[in-house]
Amino acid sequence: MLSQETALWLARSQFAFTIGFHIVLAAFTIGLAQWLMLLEGLWLWRKQRVYLDLYKYWSKVFALNVAVGVVTGVLMEFQFGTNWGALANRAGAVMGPMMYMEVLVAFFLEAGFMGVVLFGMGKVRPWVHFFATCMVAVGSIFSAFWILSANSWMQTPAGFITGADGRFQPVDWWAVIFNPSFPWRFVHMTLAAMLATACLVAAAGAWHLLRRPDNRGARLMFSWGLWLLLVITPIQVVVGDLHGENTRDHQPVKLAAMEGSWNPPPPGEGEPLRLFAIPDMQAQRNHFELAIPNIGSLYLRHNLTGTIHSLNQYPRDERPWVPGVFFAFRAMVGLGLLMLFFGAAGLIARLRGRLWTSQKLQRGMVWMAPAGFFAMLAGWFVTETGRQPWTVYGVLRTAHSVSPVAPSLVLTSFFAILIVYLLIFAIGLWFLLRLLGRPPSHDEREPNAEVAEQTGCGITPQSIRGRYDA
Question: What is the spatial distance between Cα 264 and Cα 251, in angstroms, rounded to a whole number?
Answer without folding.
Answer: 17
